[in-house]
From TrEMBL:
Substrate binds at residues 229, 251, 254, 320, 353, 407, 412. Binds 1 zinc ion per subunit. Its EC number is 1.1.1.23. GO terms for molecular function: histidinol dehydrogenase activity; NAD binding; zinc ion binding. The gene is hisD. This is Histidinol dehydrogenase. Catalyzes the sequential NAD-dependent oxidations of L-histidinol to L-histidinaldehyde and then to L-histidine. It catalyses: L-histidinol + 2 NAD(+) + H2O = L-histidine + 2 NADH + 3 H(+). Its cofactor is Zn(2+). NAD(+) binds at residues 121, 183, 206. It is an enzyme of class 1 (oxidoreductase).
Length: 421
């Protein structure tokens, strides 16, 4: 890997894919087809894109039972424990309805209400992601969403991976459907004979899924348009080059367009990490993907001071940030922009991906400047509560009417003055 000096105004090289015009047209056509033809379109696209000829979209209890039989008992225990950790963390996020009464007797507040329904997209393809099931479903469950629908593309055998089904069952998902791509997003947004429409769609997917989510936004809510995975490591000379290299590759193996960056104050560490990445790539099963990621979107930057290194991290606003330095926890206060912050040697990014409890659905492409992880709040609505007393109305009515006339809205003013007759 090329080692560069930190410079003012530098930015991380990211893969930002808005889709080609052909891809956008394809997605719009699929959405319209699903809206018009419902399940028939889903069956057709599943056969065309996934190579699976299905006669029923919904996963049966028999398939779930077979998934449990296919997994090792210890692995099932790990999934259960991860689900418990995720639930415990997200339970601390839940906010309750609140009210307060002013001295004039008026009551103001905020009512918290869970969404009626949510759809979770779980990607398929080159890997199975039971962790995505847990990270999307558990906050919705904690929020109190009554109906959670999961969709995921089947293999050409017409089945979903055992780990995905077991995770969904442990998380309490009752409606699981074997359909993926833009057609699955369309089904969640508008409904078909088998799949009832939902209020919000969450979960990552390929470019067609991302474009479909963008297309249906407004008719339903979505979580975010997620880009390829990113990791930045902030390290000094106390860090292990072997461990830093392994952590960078843990994200590089996700996607050819994933980004892995090291920002360090140590030239020696920078050189050692570059060598270790080359060594570890040789034995990595997904080395072709990781190699493309490292070559096209990887970087090592050397900063003149820790202050300069932290400033660089804030400019990058990475999805995942590892801090592997002396007194790492003290640096957290200086980090303004990062989706998730992993502190210290033993907080390798996969700890958060799978087990610790915080959500791994995170802002990418620099959007950590204004966004955060998926949370319980994403599955709840806030309603303002306003109950004015007569005393408060008499005191402020003229002010309110005057404000309305300032904006040229006479009927607003008269609505206030009608109560003075």
């Amino acid at each position: 890997m090329k080692i560069e000096r930190v410079t003012a105004g530098m930015s991380i090289k990211r893969s930002v894919d808005a889709g080609t015009e052909d891809q956008q047209r394809t997605v719009r056509a699929i959405i319209e087809d699903v809206k018009e033809n419902g399940d028939r379109a889903l069956f057709d696209y599943t056969e065309k894109f996934d190579g699976a000829k299905l006669y029923s979209l919904k996963v049966t209890q028999e398939e779930i039972n077979e998934a449990y039989e296919a997994l090792d008992d210890e692995m099932i225990k790990v999934i259960r424990e991860a689900a418990d950790n995720i639930a415990a963390f997200h339970a601390k996020q839940k906010r309750e309805t609140w009210l307060y009464t002013n001295e004039d007797g008026s009551i103001l507040g905020q009512k918290m209400t869970p969404l009626d329904s949510a759809g979770v997209y779980v990607p398929g393809g080159t890997a199975a992601y039971p962790s995505s099931v847990l990270m999307n479903v558990m906050p919705a469950k904690i929020a109190g969403v009554e109906r959670i629908v999961m969709v995921s593309p089947p293999g050409n055998d017409g089945r979903l991976p055992a780990g995905v089904l077991v995770a969904a069952d442990i998380a309490g998902v009752k409606d699981i459907f074997k359909v993926g791509g833009a057609q699955a997003v369309a089904a969640l947004a508008y409904g078909t004979e088998s799949i009832k429409a939902v209020d919000k769609i969450t979960g990552p997917g390929n470019i067609f899924v991302a474009l479909a989510k963008r297309e249906v936004f407004g008719d339903v809510d979505i979580d975010m348009i997620a880009g390829p995975s990113e990791i930045a490591v902030l390290a000094d000379d106390t860090a292990s080059a072997k461990e830093v290299a392994a952590d960078m590759l843990s994200q590089a193996e996700h996607d050819r367009r994933a980004s892995a960056v090291l920002v360090t104050t140590s030239q020696e560490l920078a050189q050692a990490v570059a060598r270790k990445i080359e060594d570890q790539l040789m034995s990595l099963p997904r080395s072709e993907i990781a190699r493309a990621s490292i070559d096209d979107y990887g970087a090592i930057y050397v900063a003149g001071s820790m202050k300069e290194a932290v400033q660089t991290i804030n400019e990058l606003a990475p999805e995942h940030l590892e801090i592997i330095t002396e007194n790492a926890l003290e640096l957290v206060k200086d980090i303004k922009h990062a989706g998730a912050i992993f502190v210290g040697r033993y907080s390798s990014e996969p700890v958060g991906d799978y087990f610790a409890g915080p959500n791994h659905v995170l802002p990418t492409n620099g959007t950590a400047r204004f966004a955060g992880p998926l949370s319980v709040d994403d599955f709840m609505k806030k309603s303002s509560i306003i109950m004015y007393s007569k005393q408060a109305f008499d005191k402020h009515g003229k002010k309110i009417a005057a404000f309305a006339r300032l904006e040229g809205l006479e009927a607003h003013a008269r609505a206030i003055e009608a109560r003075n007759d």
